Structure formats: structure tokens, C-alpha cells
Amino acid sequence: MHHDFWHQRWQHQHIGFHLNAVNPFLLAHFHALDLQPGQRVFVPLCGKTLDIHWLLAQGMQVVGAELSALAVDALFAELKLTPKVTQAGSLRHYRAKQIEIFQGDFFALPQDQLGTVDATYDRAALIALPDEMRKQYCQSLMAITQTAPQLLVSFQYDQSLVPGPPFSVHKEEVASHYQAHYVLTELASITMEKGLKGQYPAEETAWLLSPS
Fold first, then answer.
1. Phi, psi angle pair for 173, to nearest 5°
2. Total structural domains in the chain?
3. What pLDDT, in 10s, does the model give residues 106-135?
4. Given CA atoms 169, 175, 176, 179 in this order, what sign does their dihedral have?
């Protein structure tokens, strides 16, 4: 997806991907990452997700990456935090207590800027990217997080019925991206009650990716 696509979505508030509640899979399965308060969780393509509010409430240090400055500004406003903003290469670095966000192109974020990551939580990154970008994303994510454990949420549906995002990422594709570096455990899979966008049959799956 071109950057303009996402900038326009945020500019016009076409953000149906933003959930008005904490993701149920995060609530049910975060414990599988076996983290302690103070450890650092990376949330790629984070938007202004309420999942970050929940992670902070658990005592986690949160670091995110997000393309849209509007989304980052909204996130900090909703957290009632005033970040310190500095330039970090081509990215803007927002920092406040327990949280920092790198705003700009995810693929421009190097490992030395990101720093140590104890786990990754990917609810909306892999499924936001078209097929031709997903392999690059997974390789970049593993490189900058040094293959940290991961809690991943994916969707599966008939892609011919509706264009993404979110895109359909079948279980076989998850394995093709990650099985060389992780042990993949399917934690839960549910049929979405109202389907994707309220009309297309879809399945949502939570994965634990443990470094092999």
C-alpha cells in the first residue's frame, strides 16, 4: 500500500480498522508471552489502538511504529500524555513515560534505534499489507526485533470477495514467513460472528511465535 492510502484514511477518519475495545485475543493470550512488568513490547503499525492503553496498564514498556502523525498525536492525546518529540533519521521519535513511538516508514526503522524488544504484538500490521509486501515486512520485523517472541493475530477469508485491507493471511502463509525461525502455536481460532466488514465469512486466529 502506498503511504498516501493510509494518510488519506487517517485524514478522512476512514479508520474502520480501529477497534473501540481492547482486542479479545490480547486479553486472553498475552500471558503466553510470559513477560514481566517493565519489559518492552513492540507494536508495529500501531495506529492509536486501545491495546496500547491496556499494555501500559499491565506495566509494560511499549514501543510502537506508525506511519500517520495524526494517529500518533491522537494516541498521546487519548493517553493524556505530552510526548517529547525528536528527529531520529527520517523518523520522528515520540517519547513519554513507559511509551515511545517511531512515526514514519516502518521499513526505515533500524534495529539500533528500536532497541531491545522482549516481545512483539502484531494485531494489525501483517494483515494491513498486500501480498507483495508481507514477506519484506516479516523479514524486517524479525531483523529489528532480533526474532523476539510474538503474539500475532491473522484473518482468513475469501480474498476474491472483497479487496483488503485487512488482507487474508492464511495459516499456510503464516508458516511460510515464520516457521524457519519460530515454533508456531495456534492459540485460538474463531469464526467472526458478523464476518469481515459485517458481511464476509471470516476466521480470526491468534498465534504464539516462540523463537526456535
1. -70, -40
2. 1
3. 999 999 999 999 999 999 999 999 999 999
4. positive
pTM of the model: 0.91
Q: What is the CATH number of the domain that holds 23?
A: 3.40.50.150
CA distances in angstroms from 197 to 3, 161, 194, listed in the order given: 23, 11, 8
Q: Are residues 40 and 203 in contact, defined by beta-carbon separation less than 8 angstroms?
A: no
- Give the integer Cα–Cα distance in Å for 146 and 47: 23
pLDDT in tens, 75-84: 999 999 999 9
Start-to-end CA distance of the chain, whole Å, equals 31
**For residues 139, 141, 146 and 152, what is the CA-based torsion angle, rounded to 10 degrees?**
-110
3 state DSSP class of 148:
coil
The answer to whether the beta carbons of residues 187 and 208 sit under 8 Å apart is yes
Residues facing 189 on adjacent strands: 205
Order across the sheet with 119-122: list the strands. 84-88, 91-96, 99-103, 61-66, 40-44, 119-122, 150-157, 202-211, 182-191
CA distance 165 to 72: 20
- Residue ranges making up the domain that contains 91: 3-211
The dihedral formed by the CA atoms of 112, 115, 116 and 121, expressed in degrees to the nearest 10: -110
